[in-house]
């Protein structure tokens, strides 16, 4: 059985992406149903759109809109044949803000609040205009709890999750916030979340460097920004994003910002974002 609301009925064929859950078994069946249940609740411009699904006895398939620009990880860190042009500063700011809005939708706007559980740059898709779409809800949990089993697919050494939370079996909204902070640092610094060459985790590297971000002078902020930008960025915006990331790493989950607070902070402190009063959509002044 299946449902394909985005397929058929017209003469124009649209590209789609398919995620297949192969093999039988109760555990796989539950994982597919859990992801499908979450996806059926979602409708947001910065979350990948589910077009349809198939759920026969042996395997399940999820059909998504096709997003042409690849992943954020590929765009920031691609090398060799996968090397891309440098992602401009304003595009990075836009992606950070759009992702914050997507997380706000999951955490606070859905009838049953949703924890994504695996926010990372490889789970952020980009279209041709560098607008982002959060994807892969295989680890998502619906209905908020501060003590639910962490997803079995999440590595115990993930640089996007605070290790203490994995050990204690904690999966919460504030885990998503921590992961968002790591991703924001990736956007600002251009560094990978885990530096395999040095065995260093980006969040740990940045923690001691950003303690007094408000007191950092221009040169100190500049030294933290991706050198591939060649100075083409707004220093105060970079300072604000570094400060936001830092707040997401707070040892106390109670002190970490909520998604709505992150959106509010970016509206107030990131000058290249302008907002219309007619609706919740946004635009970026002089966007690329």
Automatic annotation (TrEMBL):
Q: Does the keyword Transmembrane helix apply?
A: yes
State one molecular function term (GO).
ATP binding
Q: Which InterPro entries match?
A: Kinase-like_dom_sf, PERK1-13-like, Prot_kinase_dom, Ser/Thr_kinase_AS
Task: Supply the Pfam families for this chain.
Answer: Pkinase
Reaction equation(s) it catalyzes:
L-threonyl-[protein] + ATP = O-phospho-L-threonyl-[protein] + ADP + H(+); L-seryl-[protein] + ATP = O-phospho-L-seryl-[protein] + ADP + H(+)
User: Domain Protein kinase: where?
Assistant: 1-285
The protein's UniProt keywords, in alphabetical order, are:
ATP-binding, Cell membrane, Kinase, Membrane, Nucleotide-binding, Serine/threonine-protein kinase, Transferase, Transmembrane, Transmembrane helix
Report the main location listed first in the record: membrane
Domain of life of the organism in this record?
Eukaryota
Q: Where in the cell is it found?
A: Cell membrane
Does the record carry Nucleotide-binding as a key word? yes
Per the record, GO CC terms?
plasma membrane
Under which name does UniProt file this protein?
A: non-specific serine/threonine protein kinase
